[in-house]
Amino acid sequence: EVCRDKYDAVLPLVRLLLHHHKLVPFVAAVAELDLKDTQEANTIFRGNSLATRCVDEMMKIVGKHYLKVTLKPVIDEVGYPTETSLGLLSPPVVSLSENLRYYVDKVFREIVRSSISCPTLMCDVFYSLRHLAAKRFPNDPHVQYSAVSSFVFLRFFAVAVVSPHTFHLRPHHPDAQTSRTLTLISKAIQTLGSWGSLTKSKLSSFKETFMCEFFKTFQEEKFTESVKKFLDDVSSTESKEPSGVSEPVHLKEG
Q1: Would the pTM of this model clear 0.85, i.e. be above it?
Q2: Are 101 and 211 in contact (CB under 8 A)?
Q3: Where are the domains of the chain?
Q4: How many CA atoms lie within 13 A of 165 on its CB side?
Q5: Where is the segment annotated Disordered (predicted)?
Q6: Which of 68, 142, 209, 234 has the most neighbouring CB atoms within 10 Å?
Q7: 78: alpha, beta or left, given left = phi > 0 and alpha = psi -120 to 50?
Q8: Confidence (pLDDT) at 97
């Protein structure tokens, strides 16, 4: 209400609240306001509101090391042609189904088994969001999962995969071919993470027909169950074992 452009205030606000250990109750409060304006469960936390931007900035600050240990080894491997001259291939799935399948499988596997490394603060925020969503849409059993996946998959892992240089997972912007591969991996992770429900409508949202064919291979219950278990784990407040990978968080530089 006060700032002309509220997004300029988000980063300093998040850093201040993190420093004073007040971020979780603040995010819960603004998320509750956000949910009052949300009419449909399937659009939960999809816009750029104050709540979603605060969680985005929090994940960038607190989840930097978590991203590094989870994704960097796989991202470093990406650079081999995945869709060699896609337009010239007949059918295009020939090259796609091998390299891309390998990368998507690997990235997906690393993510769903990474919950032990997820920072406690992120888990506390996801726990709040999950319960607020379930309270707002009590008749939708999936909304508690989509509330968490809309952040951890769509706004955290998928974004880091598509632009690894901005998350310090790669030293510079990848070349065009690698960038294309990363974009397809990111799309795959977004779709798999959308509470794992690969419906016909979701598959038809792909412009490329080969992506629809590719995704049919992921229509198995084991993928849905893996996503569900991961979301359960990262939105739980039960104490986690020390993972031995935590790093001090830099709230202020310069």
Answers
A1: no
A2: no
A3: 55-234
A4: 7
A5: 232-254
A6: 234
A7: beta
A8: 59
